[in-house]
Amino acid sequence: LRRLRVFSGIQPTAGSFHLGNYLGAVRQWVALQETHDAFYSIVDLHAITIPQDPGALREATRLAAAQLLGAGLDPARCTLFLQSQVPEHAQLAWVLNCLTGFGEAARMTQFKDKSARQGTEGTTVGLFTYPVLQAADILLYQANEVPVGEDQRQHIELTRDLAERFNGRFGDTFTVPGAHILKDAAKIYDLQDPSVKMSKSASSPRGIVWLMDEPKKSEKKFRSAVTDTGTVIRFDPEEKPGVSNLLSIYSALTGIGVAELEEKFTGQLYGPLKTELAGIFADWVAPFRSRTQEYLDDPAELDRILALGAEKARSVAAGTLADVYEKTGF
Ligand code: ADP
Ligand code: NA
C-alpha cells in the first residue's frame, strides 16, 4: 500500500523560526514523516518576492534547514530540500503562469494584503505570481495532501483549479491535491498583543518567541506576557485571549489537555502559570537549540543532506516536468 504523499513548504526566516512556526507547522511535519511520503521544501524562491539581502537569505536558508533537522526531520524518513536547488519549480511555474487568469491571481487575498503593505511600486510581479509558484511546488510531486494552516486554503484552491485545468486541456497529468488543514496545530498569538497571531512581521518584537534566542530572553517574554486584569486561569479566547494563549502553548509543549491545566491552576494567579510555562519552554528549547547548532557547526554535513534531498526531489520533479513539457508542445 503506497503511503499518501504530502508536500509542504516553509520560507526561511532571518534570525530563526518563532514558536508559532514550530507549533503551527514544523511539529506537524515531524509527525507526518512517520505516516506519509513527505516532501518538505525550504522555499527560498518565494523569499525573494520581497527585497532580500543575498548574504542574509543564504544564512536564513541554512538556518531553516538546521532548525528543521534540529526539530526532528529525518532525511531518511522524508525528502528535505531547497526549492532553488530543484529548477523544475521555476520551470513548471512558468507553464502554470500561462494557464492562470490575471483576474484569478488578482483575487488572492494574501496578495491583496501584502501588496497593500508594499505599495504599487514596491510590489513585484513575483509577489503577484507567488501562488502560482506555490501550485508548481505542490503539483510537481503529485502530492495528495498539502498540510497547511487555514490562511493557505485559497492558494490550495487555486492549485486544484490549475491542476484540473491542465488535466482537462492536455489529459490526466496532475494529482489534484486536497488541503490537509492541520488539526492539532495550535494557533499561537503574540505575547504582547494576543489579538494578533505571533508573526515575524509583528510590530512589537517583545511578543515573539524566537527559537534560537538565548532561553533567558524568551523566559522573560513569557513572564511579562500580557494577560488581563482578572485572576482566574480559564481557557476563554474571547474574554481571556492572553491567558488562553499561554494555556495553548503550555498544552502544545507538554501534551497536557487544556481542561486538565485549568484544573491544575485552580486558585492560582497568572504569575505561577507564566513562570512555569517559561521553565517548560526553556526545557524544551535547550535540546532543540543544541541539535540545530550541531548542524550549523558542520556546514559540510548540512550541504550533504541538502544535496541528497535535492536529488531525491528532482527524481520525482523531473518526471512530472517532462510529462508537462511533452503535453504542452515542447
Ligand atoms: P509569519 O506569520 O511569521 O510570516 P509564515 O507565514 O512564514 O510566518 O508561516 C510559516 C508557517 O508557520 C505556516 O505554516 C504558518 O501557518 C505557520 N504559522 C506562522 N505563524 C503562526 C502562528 N502564530 N500560529 C500557528 N502557526 C503559525
Ligand atoms: Na505570513
Describe, in short, the structure shown.
This protein has about 325 residues and is mostly helical. It has helices spanning about 20-35, 55-70, 90-95, 100-105, 110-120, 125-140, 155-170, 215-225, 240-255, 260-265, 270-295, 300-330; strands spanning about 5-10, 35-40, 80, 145-150, 180.
Helix and strand composition category: mainly alpha
Low-pLDDT runs of 5+ residues are none
| Beta-strand residue percentage | 5-15%
C-alpha termini separation: 35 Å
Shape summary: globular
Mean pLDDT: 95
User: Helicity level, as a percent range?
Assistant: 40-55%
Radius of gyration equals 21 Å
Number of helices: 12
- SSE order: EHEHEHHHHEHEHHHHH
Quantity of strands, as a count: 5
Q: What is bound: which ligands?
A: adenosine-5'-diphosphate, sodium ion
Strand order of the largest sheet: 1-2-3
Please summarize the sheet with the most strands: 3 strands, parallel
